[in-house]
Amino acid sequence: MATDLLPGAPPGEPKTRRPWRERVVPRKPGRRLASALRHRWLYVMLLPGLAYFLIFKYWPMYGLHIAFKDYLPFLGYSGSPWVGLKHFQALFAGPDLGRLMTNTLILALLTIVFAFPAPIVVALMLNEVRTSVVKRSVQSLIYIPHFLSWTIVASLTYLLLSADFGVLAAFIDDLVGGQQVDYVAQEGWFRPIIIMQLLWKQTGWGTIIYLAALAGVDTQLYEAARVDGAGRWRQLWHITIPAIRPAIVVMAILTSGHLLDTGFEQIWLMTTSLNRSVADVFDTYVYYIGITQGAFSYSTAVGLFKGLIGVLLISGSNWLAKRLGQSGLY
Amino acid sequence: MTIRTRRGWRLPVALALVGALAVSAAACSSDDSSQQSLDKITMMTRLFGTAPKADGEVQKAVEKLIGKKLDITWVPNAEYGDKTNVVLASNNIPDVMAVDEKAPTFVKAAEAGAFWDLTGKLDKYPNLKPADQQTARNSSVNGKTYGIYRVRPLLRSAVVIRKDWLAKVGLQQPETTEDLYKIAKAFTEQDPDGNGKKDTYGLIIPKWPGGYASSSPYDVIETWFGAPTGWGERNGKLVPGFDTEEFYQANRWLKKWVDEGLINRDFATLDSANWNDPFVQGKGGIIIDVNVRANQLIDLFKQKTPDNIDKVVMVGNLKRPDGQKFSAPFTGYNNVLAISKQRVRTDKQLDEVLATLDKMQSKEGSILLTNGIEGRNFKAEDGKAVPINQTDPAVKVIQNDVDKAFIQLGTRASVGLGAYAPKYADEVSQKLYDLRDTLMQEDLKTAVHNPALAVISPTLIQKGSTLNLIIPDARIKYLSGAITEDQLRAEVKRWYDSGGTQVAQETNDLVAKIGK
Q: What ipTM was predicted for this assembly?
């Protein structure tokens, strides 16, 4: 067997399988290898996942170095000259950074305030529903928008809210009785529309994880609480919410890592000449500068900068979670 | 403990995998391009409908004519710019591609040597030799020719109006901007569709995909009021068109239209692919665009109301209120066919490609690309192409392949200038088609040409991405009422402050160096 050929494998090692407990104990490198070989199928199963991360997450990082070059595709990676921090200087000195930061952070903040708690609230509400038929059908109905692409959501929004033929816009205007508002073109309506789209599309999907956590709560706790005279709100506060708190914290940390990913497709599709000043976020800017205008190095620098802020945010919130006595992600 | 054991092995496994990947990647990219034969030429151009099949009749016919196989990438027009940038960033640049020769990515790539400098190299090919020196200069990049320009009529701007509505409100064809205003007002307020409701408007404007001076309705109207097309001379120096009082006058005038509801309210968001819809559906009655739109509209009316298609009237550029006329010209070309150096490495290979293109742009080739296959989808009659067999599905495919796709490969005979002028089956379409030339000849007398077409300032190549959006965005905001005229002027100042000052200086210097 192969183990015998490897250095450090002690001679005369019994080749029969030993009980699990025993296999956990060895610490010598040779034993480790032996253990690895014994679990080889687990490692084989790990390979596709590893390959995914290497090919789609780590391999492309090689290209990040063009942020420090004046990259020209024709000259290639190696032929393009190094320019140091020129593109970062341009970003910090240029007129766009402030606007991008503001827009991105405001959208991120709105997402935390509105879109993050929404699934929790909905999950709690669904949890209180007694009839399981109602519960199930509501649950399924609010999932559905998750499976629509942003293109469809954006088209629907335009159809409903267009000043010229929007059904919903006309309805609201009749209701309010004011003059017609071009909701999809006005700066002031951009963020509300983005958040409303987000709520409509993702809330239902987001409830899944919380509903799963809620399903795991020991019903005896509720019984005990009722015996002690706790009402609905007390039960909610002292049993339900503590039970799903770990799920909330993990979701919060994961969300913070994606905070700056403000949903490229969604925003790109909703951007017009009239709302660009509030709609420009890092992702759309990188696309516009990089793909539409072909400034590859500069847009890579912007993307890298965004990535750095993302790392800061996620490690910050992890640290905060630990400080608050919750188990962090790592 | 188990975890420790596994962690110890994670790194080696990962490294081994990376190694394997690197080896396979290296294996994939080891072809030597200079050895590749040019029996097959790869091309990329714009597409305006469904892509032709590679074994379609038209492609076969073109291949037979040039004696080479073709591999053509058809890219939908709306995403052509983005796709060009992606292609330029790849290892897969087609041998021949239609590009906007002033786009920053192309200029950078060409200056780095990704494309052949064809300056002075085209004269020995009779069908590639520029027919018009002015257009040849305009399509150069600061004096260097990077491609063969795809010719277009020199002037295409026109105003298209609903004919039946005009009769209903009892007004004449417009001659001045004030006439047009009266028509728009009547279209909005006098119920031209006769349904008893005030549900119509005058002018239809879509969300414009291009920037400033991209032949948008706004640009055309500004020219009517006397603003330069792109760049113009003021006090002996070239200034951008938006830095002139005429620019503000035109937009003030157009703002009145918006305020009075004479323009579709979703002018900032209406998808330009649906531009014709409000016109055909009877919501709006005026379109300011290229003259080919008149025939497009007739074709749509043919589907909607086949027995009554005479619903379009077309006029040329309009006089401004004081009676002076300024017409908005076109550049005379649209994109150039550039030749990449990726596979075409030697002068001999370049000659091979150019000779092939020369065959393709010959009289015979031009007919194939712009009219189709004689005897299959058209016959020549008095120098005109008469459509035949149009009900045969196979012929429909040919007609589509030519009109929506292959015509985009033509450089000499091209859109609006077919090898044979088309002969329409109906009188209405024929008249509108013939009118194009009449209007063009008339308006060319008052055309305001852009003296800076041939140049592109280096600063604009570097900073164009941020600069180019400022003016068109501000203009739309002003028109929609989001900002005041003072704020619009402030945006023009912001353009100058963000690098526009250098752009203006460099443009002046380059034009002085290269000549107009």
A: 0.71
